[in-house]
Prior knowledge:
By secondary structure, the chain is α/β, with parallel strands linked by helices. It folds into 2 domains: about 5-255, Dihydropteroate synthase-like (TIM Barrel); about 265-350, Sulfite Reductase Hemoprotein, domain 1. About 40% of the residues lie in helices and about 20% in strands. The chain is built from 13 helices and 15 strands. A hairpin with a 2-residue loop joins strand 13 (about 315-320) and strand 14 (about 325-330). The radius of gyration is 23 Å and the shape is elongated.
Amino acid sequence: MGKLPCELTRPVQVGDVTIGGGAPVVVQSMTCTDTRDADATLAQVRALAEAGCDIVRVTLPAADAVAPFARICEESPVPIVADIHFDYRLAIAAARAGAAKLRINPGNIGDWAKVDAVIDAAGEYGCAIRIGVNAGSLQKDVVERQDLTQAEKLCASALAFVGHFEQRGFTDIVLSAKAHSVMTTLETYRALSRELPQVPLHLGVTEAGGIRQGTIKSSIALGALLAEGIGDTMRVSLTADPLEEVPVAWGILQAVGVRRRGPEMVSCPTCGRTQVDLVAIADEVERRLQACKKPISVAVMGCAVNGPGEAADADIGVACGKGQALLFRHGEVIRKVREDRIVDELMAEIEKL
């Protein structure tokens, strides 16, 4: 069996986190605080790290944010990525201030001399660069081409940018090429994986929408790519509190078997056979599992049909009946429990695992 695409990319170091080269897929998010408020930004960075972020991106909007940004880099529990647009001088300042990685779109930084100045600064201060291409800021000559699809335009810009960086001898690069369309995302990243097999890819669906729509679009696009072995790091972009992004990202990784953090809950959708308040039980189990870090599977099944047999591969679970449930471990029944004790008894057994 040949290697997966993510095993063929070169490793890029972002602080103490490795992206690419077969390393675990890295989960990212981005703060939404004013970077000038270092206390508020650090609080959000710490919350994101606690939720499961490996790397956090912070915007650097103007020169008066550089000093607070430097403090954020110094005190952050995870590597910080500086998000830069338009002003190449801010990218240089971010590298100097301690950014572990710069996120730039060469298409809106300016001419190649300015891009080269950023590359040189990144090399001098030892930070990586994410080349972030998106549908709204492509190279001008590419935008005007009517013979190319959106995915082909994204790829053309990405190939040109990567080629320039590599010709200058700078290879600590990660690449993203984002669109809001699921199908464009799939087509783009599959092509990039073929054309640039050495470059680690940052997956994401940009402008994906709110929690519900954004979760659906990101799960389809990112899940499909990850299942094919494409992608070295990812962000789920939601119009919501960034803390909402992290569990979705981990849920996608877990669903495709790429990486696990904490438990997975398996539960049936309920039907006319259900004789307990399964929705309430499942909701309470899911709530309590948020504090659990064990990489286990927990089954909450509504009846004997979907009980220990169908959920035999779960580490622990319950199969509910009329006013009671069978508590089982790896398909083997441990004991019966009353309906009002189902959640407590299940959580007690989880503690023993």
